Amino acid sequence: MGTPISIVSSISGRLRLKGESLRQAVPRERLERELLALDGVTDLRPNPGAGSVVVQYDQAACTMAEMEARISNLIGSASPSPARSIKRTSPVSGAQRRPGQRSLRMRVNRVSKMGMLTSLATSLAVTQLRPRGWKYWHAGTGWMFVACLGVHLLVYRRHLLR
């Protein structure tokens, strides 16, 4: 039958619902009518291709937890939203991250980007100033750029192969 409809994203004033049945017109339109009947819902943005619906609601009319509860009751899932439970779980490595701390993948990618910029700037400066042994410096900075680019491409390999 497909995946059940669930809340996959929740921020103040906006919720995203996702499920395979939202790709079909009849169940999606029925859910849209029921959602618009809820107090506080101001706008809906369905995306049939992605099987999702974005629900905009008035923050003054109800809190995020209240709106999540109303929608959970409507779609028939008594469990808390997956978006909330994902935020509370620890990363796969088992180590807790501090709030605001980036993942290791993002930190490694940031260092590789800075390395690419630094090596590119150094290479350009060396070619303009032409100090003694400038060709070795230029070749060395070029290899540093290629190495950092390799790390960057490794981090984003899944996005490149879509």
Structure report:
With about 160 residues, this protein is of the alpha+beta class. It has 6 helices and 4 strands. The protein has helices at about 25-35, 65-75, 80-90, 105-130, 135-155, 155-160; strands at about 5-10, 15-20, 40-45, 50-55. It has a 4-stranded antiparallel β-sheet with strand order 1-2-4-3. Helix 4 (about 105-130) packs antiparallel against helix 5 (about 135-155). The longest helix is centred in the C-terminal third of the chain and has 26 residues, at about 105-130.
Give the SSE layout.
Elements: E1 6-11, E2 14-18, H1 25-37, E3 41-47, E4 52-57, H2 64-75, H3 82-88, H4 104-129, H5 134-155, H6 157-160
Antiparallel strand pairs: 1-2, 2-4, 3-4
Key features?
162 residues; single chain; four-stranded antiparallel β-sheet; alpha+beta; 4 strands; 15% strand
TL;DR of this structure?
It contains 6 helices and 4 strands, in the order ββαββααααα.
- Mean pLDDT over all positions: 83
The number of helical segments is 6
**What's the end-to-end separation, in Å?**
26 Å
User: Roughly how many Å is the radius of gyration?
Assistant: 24 Å
Encode the helix/strand succession as letters.
EEHEEHHHHH
**How many E-type strands?**
4
What portion of the residues fall into strands of 2 or more residues? Answer: 5-15%
Shape: elongated
- Measured as a percent range, the helix fraction is 40-55%
Spans of at least 5 consecutive residues with low confidence: 77-94
Main β-sheet, spatial strand arrangement? 1-2-4-3
Oligomer: single chain
The major β-sheet equals: 4 strands, antiparallel
SS content category: alpha+beta
